[in-house]
Write a structure and sequence with these properties.
Blueprint lengths: L19 H26 L6 H6 L7 H22 L11 H11 L2 H14 L4 E7 L5 E7 L12 E7 L6 H4 L3 H8 L5 H11 L2
Antiparallel strand pairs: 1-2, 1-3
Helix pairs in contact: 1-3, 4-8
């Protein structure tokens, strides 16, 4: 059974960057629905005991097309949001730390250059989707975006996401309306770089 990530902070803890109503709706409605639907579909497919990254990386093994598409969407929503809520915190903001900082500087030139590139991917994603920073199997950092609830795993890249910006309207529209760029700018004020660094170190081993 797949379990929804447990928030270690209150719904209003990320204000003013992310308001309480958005957080409550995002977590208790959208993410909860992805999780429940994934569990239902996974049981039908007999894959309820499969680890989520393995499940998303091997979607082609699910024979029933409707169930496969449902797991791609809801399994992606489950995985993506577990990551998203894990890398934000009321203690967030600032700049990357540790091994991640050194790798980001070497890869992108500077933190500001990274922000510019990931912001362009996030704001440029047509319709609903995500912007990602991932670790390749060789330990390199790469940036990408994806539509809907797809991610680098379900896309078959072999890369491991460690940072994701949710640009579905449900992530920001109650506060920012159509101003996606304003939301992305404020999102950096709640990014927990300790959490992202830990994910980087685990993926780069």
């Amino acid at each position: 059974m797949f379990e929804q990530y447990k928030l270690p902070y209150a719904y209003d803890a990320l204000e003013p960057a992310i308001d309480a109503l958005t957080m409550e709706t995002h977590y208790s409605k959208h993410h909860a629905t992805y999780t429940a639907t994934l569990n239902t579909l996974a049981e039908k497919a007999g894959v309820q005991d499969t680890e989520i990254t393995s499940l998303l990386a091997n979607l082609s093994k699910i024979g029933d097309e409707a169930i496969r598409n449902g797991i791609r969407n809801n399994g992606g929503g489950y995985y993506n949001h577990n990551l998203y809520f894990k890398i934000i915190s009321p203690r967030g903001g600032g700049e990357p730390i540790g091994a991640l900082k050194a790798k980001m500087d070497a890869t992108f030139g500077s933190f500001d250059a990274f922000k510019e590139k990931i912001t362009a991917l996030a704001t440029g994603q047509f319709g609903s989707g995500w912007a990602w920073m991932s670790v390749t199997p060789a330990g390199e950092l790469v940036l990408s975006n994806s539509a809907n609830q797809d991610n680098p795993i379900s896309q078959g890249t072999g890369n491991t996401p460690i940072f994701g910006v949710d640009v579905w309207e449900h992530a920001y529209y109650l506060k920012y309306k159509n101003l996606r760029a304003a939301y992305v700018k404020e999102f950096f004020n709640v990014v927990d770089w300790n959490a992202v660094n830990a994910l980087y170190e685990a993926a780069a081993k």
